[in-house]
Amino acid sequence: MKSKLIMVLGVALLFGGEAFAQSSSESKNGEVSVDYSFVSFYPASAYAKRKSLNGGGGSFAYFWKDLIGVKADFQGYASNTTQFVIPAGVTGVPAGTYNVQGNLFTYLFGPVIQPRKSKVAPYGQILFGAAHTNVYSNVYNAVGKVGSAPSNNGFAMSVGAGIDIRINDTFWFRPAQFDYLLTNFNNNYIAGNRIQNNFRYMAGIAIRF
Question: Helix/strand/coil (H, E, C) string of 132-187?
């Protein structure tokens, strides 16, 4: 009788432990990630070429349902030299080749959709916020323009998707996230436009808690 009772208690503890582990896993609504990030940045000027920017950052997400959450994403990219080759005849801008330093930072917030109970969990998101770069004000100063320099800050938006792969209950590998990244910086004074259409790739580790 005693041995049967011990067996029953053992089975109950086993299934109870599994149920607790499952409940613990499913109750992990918070998530922090750290990542490497690459951006193919297009200055949207007739006189500058696309630039490859390397950096990184992280994000925080909270899911109040299995599928629906909200994310805050912060990324930064080291200062990079951008070359502007301006020909003769451009009104108000001296002809010449101008090499200027410029960085890029993005601060984005918005909804994310992901099946949280899956061991291989794809996700999609659309984020809105702001971006910062000093490249346009630097070239403005380099060409000798007068008056107010353009703002270093502008609107930003990203639309993208990625995938998480379970390592264990806490750690998830994020091999790839691909985004269309729109930034809106004023560079009209060098015959460009306000919209820059960029590509972004990220990879890293997500930690659920």
Answer: ECCHHHHHHHHCCCCCCCCCCEEEEEEEEEEEEEECCCCEEEEEEEEEEEEEECCC
Q: Which residues contact 69 (CB under 8 A, 6 or more apart)?
A: 29, 31, 61, 62, 63, 111, 112, 113, 114
Q: Taking a C-beta distance cutoff of 8 angstroms, is the pair 204, 35 a contact?
A: yes
Q: What pLDDT, on a 0 to 100 scale, did the predictor assign at position 186?
A: 74
Q: Quote the CA–CA distance of 136 and 133 in Å, as a whole number.
A: 7
Q: What are the structural domains of the chain? A: 29-208 (2.40.160.20)
- Provide the CB-side half-sphere exposure for 192 (13 A, CA): 25
Q: Which residue has the tokens 């200062």?
A: 79
pTM above 0.85, yes or no: no
Spans of the chain below 70 pLDDT: 1-27, 91, 146-147, 187-193
Helix boundaries (H) for the chain: 2-26, 135-142
- How would you class 93 by CB atoms within 10 Å of its CB: exposed for 0-12, middle for 13-18, buried for 19 or more? buried
Q: How many CB atoms lie within 10 A of CB 115?
A: 13
CA distance 171 to 165: 9
| Structure tokens, 33 | 């990630």
Give per-residue pLDDT as tens, 22-80: 444 456 899 999 999 999 998 877 788 889 999 999 999 999 988 999 999 999 999 88
